[in-house]
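Retro notes, item 3 of 5
We never archived the inputs for the 6-phosphogluconic acid complex last cycle. Fixing that now. Sequence and ligand:
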Amino acid sequence: MTASVDLRRLTTPQDLFQAAAEEVIRVATDSIAQRGRFTIALSGGSTPRNLYTLIAANAGASVPWDKVFFFWSDERHVPLDDPDSNYLMAKETLLSKLPIPPANIFPVPAGNKDAEAVAEAYEQTIRNLFALKPTEVPRFDLILLGMGPDGHTASLFPETPALEEKSRLVTANWVEKLKTSRITFTLPLLNAARYVVFLVSGTDKAAVLREVLEGDAPPEKYPSKLVRPSNGKLIWFVDRAAASQLTTA
Ligand code: 6PG
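Structure as it came back at the time:
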């Protein structure tokens, strides 16, 4: 892992979510001040639920939400009202609780049975918002990521085809061990971001966090190691339980 990693070690999960919420609000405020808007890609799974709840409870008045544009760094290949949907989780914990114009929310159209078509449509949605030339890669202001116990992030699972994608922004990734396709940002899109923020909490992530931050295994085995913004900041928010196997002080 490159030395430029900003590792923020918190004690309890609540401290972690509080610190991460403050960072998201800070980046949002700076982005809006500098560029008139804040583009964020939310992560899914269970860890960010508490972060979203905290932001919804505390930041209602501190951010001009009409200048914030929401995307997802990955999504399950399920309808938006499916209990597994990352969109549904964010809608319930965050989006439904803040004055966000619906036009600012860009769910992955994951209800379409054709996963490749979903990925292509979502890539076009992103390109449209950023209004870039076909060869340019959009720079999200902030991309939130979690990490699974196998070192996956977004839906970039170990030794899956999406890890090799060098030009697409979004792709459908078949995950054999889950027997399902996932829709995911690719590494070119992740690594173009101004800020990439990992949230890692709990003892079950301790071994893989040591591997990712300190180990020398091939990055394809721990895809979180492949997230290294080329011209952006990488911040890891970890709690004491997740950091319990790190050797660095
Ligand atoms: C997803 C996520 C995924 C998640 C990790 C960690 O769609 O599940 O985007 O990458 O961040 O699996 O999940 P937990 O936070 O639930 O441990």
